[in-house]
Amino acid sequence: MDYSDLTKTYNALEATTKRLEKTEIISKLLRKTKESELKQVIYLLQGIVFPKWDERKTGMSSRLVLKAINSATGVSITKLEKEWVKKGDLGIVIEEQIQKSKQTSLFKKKLTIEKVFNNIRKLAELEGKGTVTKKIQYIIELLTSAENDEAKFIIRTIIEDLRIGVKVGVMKDSITLAFEKEQGQIENAYNLTNDFAEVALAAKNNKLSSLKMEIGKPINPMLAIRIESPEEAFNAVGVPALIEDKLDGFRLQIHKKGDEISLFTRRLENITNQFKEILPIIRSNVKLKNTILDSELVGYDPKTKKHLPFQNISQRIRRKYNISEVAEKLPVEIQVFDILNEEGKSLLNLDQEKRRKILEKSIKSEKTKITITKKLVTNSKKEMNEFYKRSLGEGNEGIMIKSLESKYVPGRRVGGWVKLKPIKETLDLVIIGADWGEGKRANWLASFTLACRDKNELLTIGKVGTGISEKDADITFDLLTKELKPLIKETDGKHVILKPKIILEIGYEEIQTSPTYKSGYALRFPKVVNLRKDLGFTDIDDLIKVEKIFKTQRK
Ligand code: AMP
Description:
Elements: H1 3-14, H2 19-32, H3 35-45, H4 62-73, H5 77-87, H6 90-100, H7 113-125, H8 131-145, H9 150-158, H10 168-178, H11 183-193, H12 196-204, E1 223-227, H13 230-237, E2 241-246, E3 250-257, E4 260-264, H14 279-285, E5 290-299, H15 311-314, H16 323-329, E6 332-342, E7 345-346, H17 352-362, E8 370-372, E9 375-378, H18 381-393, E10 398-403, E11 413-420, E12 427-436, E13 445-454, E14 457-464, H19 477-484, E15 488-492, E16 495-498, E17 503-507, E18 510-513, E19 521-524, E20 527-531, H20 543-552
Parallel strand pairs: 1-11, 6-8
Antiparallel strand pairs: 2-9, 2-10, 3-4, 3-5, 5-6, 6-7, 10-11, 12-13, 12-16, 12-17, 13-14, 15-16, 17-20, 18-19
Helix pairs in contact: 1-2, 2-10, 3-12, 4-8, 5-6, 6-9, 7-8, 10-11, 10-12, 11-12
Adenosine monophosphate is lined by residues 221, 224, 244-247, 250-251, 266, 296, 337, 373, 400, 419.
């Protein structure tokens, strides 16, 4: 397929914000794509050349890309940089420069998607000294053959910013429509593989049901629904139930294929490199040769060996440098709570109780290294309450309550697992800024900057956009926009600065420290609970209260 066929689709996608139209456009392209090119088309539509969980990244610094554009067009790097700032899109800059420069058509060859895909892939695969020149050469080769807007999309793909609005939901719908499948089939296939290229190919060949989990490829983790009391927990999962500590670390999916190990986060980022120190522990303490484990990685104090809140280790996840130094200062323990694969065999359809039994046989527990999460099987509310209190006392977030019969359902909150954690006090905060929305929210203010009080000063503490409805509710975007419009003091692009008057009652999951906001704190998952027209300036909650909640939230 010519690359220009794909760029036509890109343009059509860029021209609409409507999900249905996007779905139609993509499915039309998929239907006419040859089987041998389907995978490449699917990746390029998402602006990638590897599935998102792959360790390989295009990894081009903007400096290198600018250098390549400079070589291909002759325009100086300084000028390119200036234009980039002005236009805010390097893709448009290159498009304009190519149109201006009268290149000889001598070296031009019509670009195919295969050529573009392979050249961009090579950028990630080249490593080590002397590869910079080669990488630049691969980009130049594409740019000198690019027609019209092709260069724009090539550059956007290289810098991983395609800007055509194809998100996961649109991809799922498009594959469903293109190959006349049921939505649930595509959903399941995607949850297992996290690779739309695999899913589309299987859908085209009517082989969706033969897609299997593969050790080394992450699957979407099962999620839990929040409940408010032990009673509700038993109602949701039945009796007796499996209760476990809800640890305050982060989700870690461990894939072990012999001695080869990969580690993935809940969002399926590959973090094997960041946590190299736990690989030997997994090799020596996991008794199975091949397996997939579901776990929480929890930080602990190297002196006291006590668990620490997630905040302490969060900086380790995306760290690129000094990894081993930080690993020593911020050590982690693996707390395993589930097993999804035993020697190549999927355990997803096995009951929770049976999976837990297999897990218990498969791990040699060793404190501060790898342990199986503490559990209790009970039908007594009293025992659940005692377990809950003890768990909170040990610094955990709360408890997980799991149905003994529950299968492992990837990527979904289906009710087989529920979570119980303390309800946080709400905060009354004032709106001091807002952003105009996009798409169908274009005429409304849709995201609101919140502040708390420090005596007479207002300090930002976060932004909120959830808990507000589009229609038929007490708090709608329309209502808030009407209230706030007369309070606009200044406009800066899509952002407006507001006179502080409207106070919102805000719920949240947790208060975290933050370098971004002036208060030094941020709210995790903030949600509007109420519009408090009854409150005035002195009722806005102050920094002292925020600090107090922050300090006591896990006691
Ligand atoms: P939440 O982040 O509040 O939606 O809670 C779900 C998260 O709790 C999971 O994604 C895990 O990272 C974490 N978690 C901690 N302990 C457990 C456990 N015993 N079972 C399942 N998830 C757990």
